[in-house]
Amino acid sequence: MAQSEEILWEILTIMKVHNSGWKTKSGGIEAENEVKNAYGVHNLKAVLLLKYLPADIEDTIYFMKH
To answer: Which of 66, 60, 62 lies closest to 11 in space, CA to CA?
Structure first.
């Protein structure tokens, strides 16, 4: 489980880095918008494969989904 926990934290870090946001002001009203993560599982797996075994990555992603 320690390996999965490490992978989980890395996934969360990657997802946080790929979120973006901006503030807009219109007619005295300020709004804050956020673009949700659109990184994709395929790109995520490609990055993680450089450090972890495919089976460990799949197990962690399965855990996150369920």
So the answer is: 60
